[in-house]
Amino acid sequence: MDLKEILQSYKGKTGYNNDILATKLGVTKSAVSKWLSGQVKKVKPETMERISTLVGYDIAPFLKGQVVSFKKPILGYVKAGYDLFREEQYLGYEEVNANENIQGDYFLQVVGDSMIGDGIMEGSLAYVKQCNQVSNNTIAVVAIGDDEVTIKRVIKRPEVFILEASNPNVKARYFTYEEVENLPVRIIGKVLYVKTILT
After folding, report:
1. d(CA 38, CA 10)
2. CA-to-CA distance for 170 and 117, rounded, in angstroms?
3. Torsions phi, psi of 47, nearest 5?
4. How far apart are the C-alpha atoms of 76 and 71, rounded to whole Å?
5. CA 150 – CA 140 distance, rounded (Å)
6. What's the CA gap between 173 and 168, in Å, rounded?
7. pLDDT at residue 85 in the model
8. What is the pLDDT along the chain (199 residues), one digit of tens a residue?
9. Nearest residue to 37 (alpha-carbon basis) of 7, 63, 75
10. Which letter does DSSP use for residue 117 in this model?
11. 3: β partners
12. Would you please indicate which residues are annotated as catalytic (active-site) residues?
């Protein structure tokens, strides 16, 4: 990744425009425009440090053309199905690239086959962005009560909250919004992608 790609990725994640980036980095809007157009590919060490602080990782190796990888923790298991208690145990790390490092937070290993229609298989690693809201029709990691976690497509309708499987043999689960509040049913992450682990 070069400077242009680093900043474009950060803008995509945050929604910041060039004015906001310029303010946060203490530079002119013209400088940011030149970086994003690829006209300027190098920056002073102090500017590089400010950009690194802003994006959350050291950009120097990238600007020097070095190959850099990042690692995210595999925190435990989540069921593509229902009724699996959370096992909050550390299972190691998985490598991600710089863009993925910015976008997500952790991996969970999948147990079960209720989401096979979306390519989420037993043993796959789901890469998750921690959040408590997702758009309608999004695959998310959802906690039900205190002990159950599942991966499902979240469907929000006026009277009902649905956790939908993509395996036709697995029934969807329906909750009133009162149940969502009281159980509770909580979105704890958005599934960004899944790595299928071949055995």
Report:
1. 15
2. 11
3. -70, -40
4. 15
5. 8
6. 13
7. 46
8. 788 988 988 888 788 999 999 999 999 999 999 999 989 888 888 999 999 998 888 888 888 877 667 888 888 888 765 544 455 577 888 988 877 888 898 999 898 899 999 999 988 999 999 999 999 999 999 999 877 889 999 999 999 999 999 999 999 999 999 999 999 999 999 999 998 865 5
9. 7
10. G
11. none
12. 114, 152
How far, in Å, CA of 123 to CA of 73, rounded?
16
Structure-block tokens of residue 178: 């009162």
CA distances from 90 to 106, 107, 123, 126, 129 (A): 11, 10, 15, 15, 17
- Quote the distance between the C-alpha of residue 37 and its chain's center: 27
The DSSP letter of residue 85 is B
Residue whose token pair is 């070095």? 66
For residue 136, the one-letter residue type is N
Using an 8 Å Cβ cutoff, are 167 and 83 in contact? no
Give alpha helix (H) positions in 38-195.
45-55, 60-63, 98-103, 177-182
